[in-house]
Amino acid sequence: MRNVIGAFAALLLAGCSVPSSLVPGEPNYSKISPKPPKEYAACVLPAWQKEVPKTTQTGISNGYRINAPSLVTADEVLEITKFKSGSRISLYEGPPWAKSGDLRKIVRDCL
Fold first, then answer.
1. Strand partners of residue 67
2. At residue 2, does pLDDT exceed 80?
3. What is the CA 19 to chain-centroid distance, rounded?
4. Residue 27: CB partners within 8 Å, gap ≥ 6?
5. Nearest to 62 by CA among 81, 83, 79, 39
6. With contact defined as beta carbons under 8 Å apart, do 52 and 63 qualify?
7. Could you state, in order of their start, the residue ranges of all structural domains in the chain?
8. Contacts (Cβ under 8 Å, ≥6 apart) of 60
């Protein structure tokens, strides 16, 4: 019985840690910035790393993805994509009780 409960708990946690970019749905926060993706990412990345040291940045076909990992819930993911002469900013956050107001504030401050 313990094995069944343990396996169920592991599945629940694994489901919570799937990057939101793989889950269909709208971002929790979306804005347009006049800054190009590289400049915007250069503003956000070091500030997020101060809050969540294991934050990483990867290049995607039309911009960047910044990922702040979480041990308990879904990661916070920021996608910065080329849009006209600036960037489209899309923030995907975990559940309401686990959202980081500090990371969202950084996203707004860098606009």
1. 56, 77
2. no
3. 8
4. 79, 90, 91, 92
5. 81
6. no
7. 2-109
8. 79, 81
Residues 77 and 63 sit within 8 Å (Cβ to Cβ): no
Size of the chain in residues: 111
The helix/strand/coil state of 6 is: helix
Do 30 and 87 meet the contact criterion of CB atoms below 8 Å apart?
no
Q: pLDDT (tens digit, 9 = 90+) per residue, 43-90?
A: 999 999 999 999 999 999 999 999 999 877 789 999 999 999 999 999
Distance CA 39, CA 2 (A): 50
Query: What is the crossing angle of helices 101-109 and 37-51, to 10°?
Result: 150
Percent of the chain surpassing pLDDT 90: 63
d(CA 48, CA 53): 8
- Best mean pLDDT range from 1-15, 16-30, 77-91: 77-91
Amino acid at the residue 18: V
